[in-house]
Each structure stands twice: as structure tokens, then as C-alpha cells.
Amino acid sequence: MTIYQTILGEEFTKLHPKLQERYTLPVNQPFYAKGVMHKIESGAKWLRPFYTVATKTKFLFPESGENIPFSICNTCRTLPSGELEVLWERAFHFPKRTRYFHARMTVDLVHKIVKDYLGEPALFYSDLHFAVTREGRLVIRSGFQRLVLSKIECGLPKFLQGHVVVEEGFDDTRNVFTIHVSIHNPLIGRLMMYAGEFTQQSR
């Protein structure tokens, strides 16, 4: 049973069948897909110093664009502790360079959250809350966040946090997964938004 089945419990069966397949993720059997982000929007230009640091850790990036080729690989693996971890590797293939958005997720059953470490090495940490819509889409919302400085983690006040909303679905008509991700700060505004579609591939 993967971390997503564990955290959602009976709600997992209410996901669209294709999303159930996607998030079952047997250990060491990666889910790989390619597609296109119809729209990508980063934040204000004055945030460039932040994006410069973020790109070095495969986190956020300054580029915006339309119809950007995209690939994603999710791999569930067993840590030395016996805990399951899911590695997220996302690549956005802009005309002049490829940008990455990586993360590592584990589950906290006590607090009923998914623990998300963003970047490689991790730059930020966020609690994640998972839910299923009536239509069978998956919705992920961020919770408490921390800045990660090597082995030190500092809690962020709410006005410095990036509020994340992810909605993933499946379009039966076109046989594609759909994705919409928004990262927004209450003071700064948009930090990142991307929306598009992808299909599972063999590597």
C-alpha cells in the first residue's frame, strides 16, 4: 500500500480509476509520463534572486511560457528505516533550457498528512493535505511550512508561506491526465502556476 492509499483510506477508491492506477505506485516501478504545460507563469521580476537560488536546488524557476514540453517521473522506494518515500521528478523543457521541480514525500499517520520536502537538496518543507472531489479528481493543499537549511528547519510565518493548490484529474474524452498547480503568497502574489496535460509512457 503506497503513502497515497494510506493517507486517503477509503477515499482512494473514489478517485478516477486512472488516478488510482497512477497513485498506486508499486515499489521501484516508476510512473513516467510526458505531456505539455499549456501555460506556465512565474512571479514578479524582482523575485529573480529567489528564483536563482531555487533553480540551483531544482525547485521553482523564473521562466514563463505556453505549450512547454513536460515530463514527470514518480518512484516509490523503501528507505533504510523501512518507511516508504515517493520521489517526484518534474522537468519543464523550455526552448533554451530545461528546468526541474523535484520533491520527496513520506506520510505522517499521527498527524494524517503527507510530508513534502521540495528541492534537491530540499529548500522548503510543507505539510500536504489530500482530498478527493465528487468527480474523482485529486486535490492537494499545503499546510504548515518550514525553510530547510541543511539539517536545520525553521518554521515560516503564514505571510511568508506559499499556499499551494494542486488539482489532478483524467479526461476520458482525450485519454490524458490533467494538472493545475498554483503557488501563491498572500503578500507577494503568484510564485508559480502551471496547467496542462500528460500521458503515461514507457521509458
Automatic annotation (TrEMBL):
Residues 15-198 form the DUF4166 domain. It comes from the Bacteria. InterPro entries: DUF4166. It holds the Pfam family DUF4166. This is DUF4166 domain-containing protein. It comes from Lysinibacillus pakistanensis. The lineage of its organism: Bacteria, Bacillati, Bacillota, Bacilli, Bacillales.
